[in-house]
From TrEMBL:
InterPro entries: Amidohydro-rel (IPR006680), Metal-dep_hydrolase_composite (IPR011059), Metal_Hydrolase (IPR032466), Metallo-dep_Hydrolase (IPR051781), OTAase-like (IPR057744). The lineage of its organism: Bacteria, Pseudomonadati, Pseudomonadota, Alphaproteobacteria, Sphingomonadales. It comes from the Bacteria. This is Imidazolonepropionase-like amidohydrolase. Residues 89-443 form the Amidohydrolase-related domain. SUPFAM superfamilies: Composite domain of metallo-dependent hydrolases, Metallo-dependent hydrolases. It comes from Sphingosinicella microcystinivorans. PANTHER family: ALPHA-D-RIBOSE 1-METHYLPHOSPHONATE 5-TRIPHOSPHATE DIPHOSPHATASE (PTHR43135).
Length: 448
């Protein structure tokens, strides 16, 4: 057979075919396994979040976003980047178990804030707040109250996908409660004022409670927050009063637990705290009016206390200096609750109640101030190591995420912070975090 002169020779055609195959291989190839990124952190002192005594001069080996192992001494390995923190104290990334990333900023006029800022304003404000929280050393947070669940889930997702900087988030969406309680944002306003999101905060009756929990699960919430007692920064209610019925609390707890969601209960009054604990909530937020019998019950039931001292500390100062910025009765309630909460935290700790740290910060004191909570806990009588556990291992346990966060241990995320000095001597060094790593990625490195 003879080839026509206007057709390419076989060798040339074969070369074209192979060229096309090569191009296709580049365009459509299945990626091979990525090369692991190996890091070694030299820690001069390691406090690992378990409550164990600190370890001196150890190396933390990291592959990609997880911790491989912790070994004595300062080691090196071919191909591994060494991060020298040999003159600093290394801890797990901190966890704040009570934040409100999307609640706006306390500017003094809460009614104006409520009626002049929509969900988009709140979401845009939350972006720099999330970054500031991360740079303060908080690599995980539990957001327990926003007006809109999809907004909170969107923020969580954007952080998880790396589109914005911020801590890992577990979100509740709105805080649920009965009409005329703290979740009823229309209380004290013109009855003709309305907002499309406000009805979604209310649960009246067990059936309504079950339905709302299921809706939040569908919208992507991780946990449920309820108002079992009246509030302090709310109009027309009493923090000592129990405002949810047992049937409503039980319906929330049973439905949430069936769906794999934990329940955080805002509860100031003694009766509210004890009812919520008996009915199976996972944590009590605030817990202001507890006593010895209350703490014995919490210990027996394994209910965790999240004390939130920072919010009352700052707002008590405001109530003393400029009470007029608060709505009716708010300043008076704050002046009573503030000192009581700090005193009772020490009593709860001595009674053996399990404690997780939460600041309740929502922008009124400037972003990234979460660490001030830990110093206030020490001032209240909780030893520094127990405070560190409250902000690391205990918090991770309450999240249901102990396999991932809260401790420096093999298999956990490489969430690490470093501080100058010894937080067991001066806990307030955690207010000046110089190094932050989240999932093996350094997000802050301000070291001398």
């Amino acid at each position: 057979m003879r080839w026509r002169s206007d057709r390419p020779a076989p060798t040339l055609r074969i070369r074209w075919v192979w060229a096309l195959v090569a191009v296709a291989a580049v365009l459509f190839a299945v990626p091979g396994p990525a090369v692991a990124k190996d890091l070694i952190v030299h820690a001069g002192r390691l406090i690992d979040g378990t409550g164990a005594p600190p370890r001196a001069d150890v190396s933390i080996e990291i592959r990609d976003d997880r911790i491989l192992r912790i070994v004595p001494g300062f080691i090196t390995r071919d191909g591994a980047e060494v991060i020298d923190l040999s003159r600093r104290t290394v801890l797990p990334g901190l966890i704040d178990m009570h934040v409100h990333m999307l609640m706006g900023h306390f500017g003094g006029d809460q009614v104006r804030e409520l009626v002049s800022n929509g969900v988009y304003d709140r979401l845009l404000r939350a972006v720099p707040q999330a970054r500031a929280t991360l740079l303060a050393g908080y690599t995980s947070v539990r957001d327990v109250g926003s007006i809109d669940a999809p907004m909170a889930v969107a923020l969580k997702r954007a952080i998880a996908e790396g589109r914005i900087e911020g801590p890992r988030m577990w979100v509740s969406g709105p805080s649920l409660g009965p009409t005329a309680g703290p979740s009823d944002l229309s209380t004290g306003l013109d009855p003709d004022l309305a907002h499309q999101h406000w009805p979604g905060l209310l649960i009246d009756g067990a059936d309504a409670a079950r339905h709302r929990v299921r809706l939040l699960k569908r919208q992507g919430a991780d946990l449920i927050k309820i108002y079992v007692s009246g509030g302090v920064l709310s109009v027309g209610d009493n923090p000592k009063a129990t405002i949810m019925t047992d049937d409503e609390i039980r319906a929330v707890v049973e439905t949430a637990h069936t769906l794999g969601m934990r329940v955080a209960a805002h509860a100031h009054g003694k009766d509210a705290i004890e009812r919520a604990s008996r009915l199976g909530v996972d944590s009590i937020e605030h817990g202001s009016y507890g006593d010895e019998a209350t703490y014995a019950l919490l210990r027996k039931n394994g209910t965790v206390l999240v004390p939130t001292l920072l919010v009352v500390h700052r707002l008590t100062e405001t109530a003393r200096k400029t009470p007029e910025v608060f709505g009716p009765t708010m300043a008076e309630k704050m002046l009573e609750v503030g000192p009581l909460m700090a005193r009772n935290l020490g009593a709860a700790y001595r009674a053996g109640v399990r404690i997780a740290a939460g600041s309740d910060i929502f922008g009124f004191d400037g972003d990234g101030q979460n660490g001030v909570e830990l110093g206030l806990m020490v001032d209240a009588g909780v030893p520094p190591m127990a405070v560190i556990q409250a902000a690391t291992g205990n918090a991770a346990d309450l999240l249901g995420a102990a396999a991932d966060v809260g401790r420096v241990a093999p298999g956990r995320y490489a969430d690490l912070i470093a501080v100058d000095g010894d937080p067991l001597v001066d806990i307030r060094v955690v207010e000046r975090v110089g190094f932050v790593m989240k999932g093996g990625v350094i997000v802050k490195r301000q070291l001398d």
